[in-house]
C-alpha cells in the first residue's frame, strides 16, 4: 500500500491503537496529521517528530475541527479513533454521562466525517471510523448502555454516509474491535485469555487497508476485527 504524498488525519493517534495505525501509515509513506487535546499528552509519544501535531484540539468543537482539517491541504484519508468508554448500569447513568458518551464517540466522529468530505478533492478519499463489537451485538452491552448506544450510532454513520457519497470517489467504512490487547486492558482484566485478543498492529492492518488507494470497492461496511475473542 502506497500513501506517498497523501495527507492522512488520525484522531486518537497518540493512543495504543492510534500509535500502531500512525506507524503503519508512516511506513507506507503517508504524511500524518494528529490532533491531541491534553497539554503534554504527546510529549513522550515516540512518533511525535514524524507527524504534524495539532495541539489543544477539542474534537467536539466545530471551530477546532475546522482548524484540524485546514492543516491537511492534500487530504486523502480521515481515520477516527478518538473516543471514550464508560461502564455503568442505566440506573447510575444520568443525562450528563450519556451526553459525554455521545460527545466523545458520535459527535467527534460526525464532525470529522463532515469536514473530511468537504476537504476531499476530485480524487476522492477514504474515511474509517471505529465502532465496537457491542455496537453490532448490543446484547453484549449490559452495564454499558450509554457507551453501546453511542458506538451503535458510530457504526450506523459510515453505512449512511457511504450511501450518500456512493456516486463519488469517497469510500466510508468502520471497524468494530472486540477487546484490544493493550497494557491497559491486560491490567484491567488480568485473568482473561489475552492471547485471544487482537493486537493494535493486527487491527491497524485492516484500518490502513480500508484507508488506502488499494481499497477500490469496499464502502458502507462495518468490519468485525474480533480476533478469537
- 3D shape: globular
Determine the fraction of residues in helical runs and give it as a percent range. 25-40%
- Kindly report the oligomeric state of this protein: single chain
CATH superfamily: NAD(P)-binding Rossmann-like Domain
* Number of contiguous helices: 7
The average pLDDT is: 91
What kind of sheet is the major sheet?
Answer: 7 strands, parallel
Q: Give the N-terminus to C-terminus distance in angstroms.
A: 28 Å
- What's the CATH topology label? Rossmann fold
Q: Any idea what the radius of gyration is?
A: 17 Å
CATH architecture heading: 3-Layer(aba) Sandwich
Order of helices and strands: EHEEHEHEHHEHHE
Strand order of the largest sheet: 3-2-1-4-5-6-7
Structural class: alpha/beta
The total strand number stands at 7
Count of discrete domains: 1
Description:
The protein has seven helices and seven strands; from the N terminus they run E-H-E-E-H-E-H-E-H-H-E-H-H-E. The chain has 229 residues and is an alpha/beta fold. Strands 3-2-1-4-5-6-7 form a seven-stranded parallel sheet, with helices on both faces. Helix 2 runs parallel beside helix 3. The model has no long low-confidence stretch (mean pLDDT 91).
Amino acid at each position: 500500500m502506497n500513501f506517498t504524498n497523501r495527507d492522512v488525519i488520525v484522531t486518537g493517534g497518540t493512543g495504543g491503537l492510534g500509535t500502531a495505525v500512525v506507524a503503519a501509515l508512516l511506513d507506507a509513506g503517508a504524511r500524518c496529521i494528529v490532533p491531541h487535546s491534553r497539554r503534554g499528552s504527546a510529549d513522550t509519544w515516540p512518533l511525535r517528530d514524524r507527524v504534524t501535531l495539532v495541539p489543544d484540539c477539542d474534537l467536539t468543537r466545530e471551530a477546532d475541527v475546522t482548524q484540524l482539517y485546514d492543516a491537511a491541504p492534500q487530504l486523502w484519508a480521515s481515520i477516527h479513533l478518538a473516543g471514550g468508554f464508560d461502564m455503568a448500569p442505566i440506573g447510575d447513568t444520568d443525562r450528563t454521562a450519556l451526553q459525554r458518551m455521545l460527545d466523545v464517540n458520535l459527535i467527534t466522529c460526525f464532525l470529522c466525517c463532515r469536514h473530511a468530505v468537504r476537504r476531499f478533492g476530485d480524487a476522492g478519499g477514504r474515511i474509517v471510523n471505529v465502532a465496537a463489537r457491542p455496537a453490532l451485538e448490543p446484547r453484549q452491552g449490559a452495564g454499558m448502555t450509554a457507551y453501546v448506544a453511542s458506538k451503535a450510532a458510530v457504526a450506523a454513520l459510515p453505512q449512511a454516509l457511504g450511501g450518500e457519497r456512493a456516486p463519488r470517489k469517497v469510500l466510508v467504512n468502520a471497524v468494530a474491535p472486540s477487546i484490544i490487547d493493550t497494557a491497559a486492558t491486560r491490567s484491567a482484566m488480568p485473568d482473561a485469555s489475552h492471547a485471544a485478543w487482537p493486537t493494535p498492529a493486527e487491527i491497524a492492518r485492516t484500518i490502513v487497508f480500508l484507508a488506502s488507494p488499494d481499497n477500490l470497492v469496499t464502502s458502507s461496511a462495518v468490519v468485525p476485527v474480533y480476533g478469537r475473542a
